Each structure stands twice: as C-alpha cells, then as structure tokens.
Amino acid sequence: MHYSTFNLLALLPFATAHFTLNWPTARGFDDTQAGSFPCGGFDEVKSPRTEFPLGGGPLQLNLEHTSTQVAVYLSLGSDPGNNYNIVLRPQFKEQGPGDFCLGEVGLPSSLNITSGTNGTIQVVTNGHAGGGLYQCADVTFTNITLSQSDNHCANNTNVKVTQENMPGNPNGTSSGTGTSSETPGPNPSSAAAHATAAGWLLGAVGAAGLALL
C-alpha cells in the first residue's frame, strides 16, 4: 500500500476500516474490539462449530478497505487460546471493497488431520492506524463436500488479489506489543506450513468477479 493511501485510510472512521468473516461462522463481531488479538475480543469458542471440509473450503469475507492485506492462520484443538501458528495463507494484498471469497483454503498435509478434529481459523487484516483486525471461526474438520448451492463463495465486482506472499509475523504483532503492524502476514520461517490453494470455482462466482488465489 502506498504511504499516502495508508494515511488517508487511517483518517477514515473506524467503522469503515473493519471486515467481517461471514463463513465459516465467526465467533462474533464487535466494532470496538475488532483490533484485539486474538479473535477480535471474542475469547470463547462458538458452539455449534461450523463443519469445514478436510479437502479445503472457502472463506467468505466482507472487506471495507479499498486495499486490504490479509493472512489466515489455524490453531488446532478445542481450546486454542492464542496459539495461531499454523499458516493457511501467507499474507497477500487484496484490492476492492465488499464481498471477497478467499478461494479453497486447504490444510497442510503434514498435519495429518482426521475427520472430527476441532480447530479455529483466524483471519487477520490490516486496520486503522496501522493496527491489525482479527476474526475467528471455530470449526470441525469433516469429510463433507460443499454443494454448488451452499458454496459460501461470492465476490464483489472487480475485487482482485494484487500481491501475494508478503512477509510478516504469525500473530500480526510487532515488538511483542500485542498490536499488529500494517503487515499481518506470517513469519517467513513458517512459510512451509501454508497450504497450496486451488481455485474455488463453483458456479455462484462469475468470471468477472473471481479473486481467488
């Protein structure tokens, strides 16, 4: 993001700088707590968990920046705490506000996750005043396959990915302060943990709106 653009975005009202995680179902959203790590101020696991395909599935976001840096992490287990050290998507830059479908997010094969395993997915974006914004979804990985009618994948017109695999820190923090820097991406040493993604190409997404990695 150019410095001048970032300064302009930092002056906008906080409500225009946030994002929501619409699928899998997020723990919740509080506009005033979205910058709190982890999970935007929601510390308790949401029940029931969303069933998420072991073979990979989409993340449906709604972004309010015209340019957003995004990264995705995973914590395994029923009580993740703040241990989001598995990289599902290294940081990338997305252009365009509104609905954004992050294509098929898969799991690193080295994890050997089986059906019934619980986990929590955390999406991190850059926010107002250089801080990070956090949303979490509690999931159970299963052998389900999403049908074309429930693919949870939609894109606003002209949204697109403009830069991929940017450097950063797994928890979106800088100098141990607990407040994220402008770049919320993973530590380069964790890059081997991220999943290789295929496009989520089910019929609800038109070619003009594709923003999938």
From TrEMBL:
Pfam families: BIM1-like_dom
GO cellular component assignments: plasma membrane; side of membrane
Segment forming the signal sequence: 1-17
Chain positions covered by the region annotation Disordered: 161-192
Regions of compositional bias (Low complexity) in chain numbering: 167-192
UniProt protein name: Copper acquisition factor BIM1-like domain-containing protein
InterPro entries xrefs: BIM1-like (IPR046936), BIM1-like_dom (IPR046530)
Domain Copper acquisition factor BIM1-like: 17-157
UniProt topology in membrane: Lipid-anchor; GPI-anchor
Top-level taxon: Eukaryota
This protein's UniProt keywords: Cell membrane, Glycoprotein, GPI-anchor, Lipoprotein, Membrane, Signal
Location in or out of the cell: Cell membrane
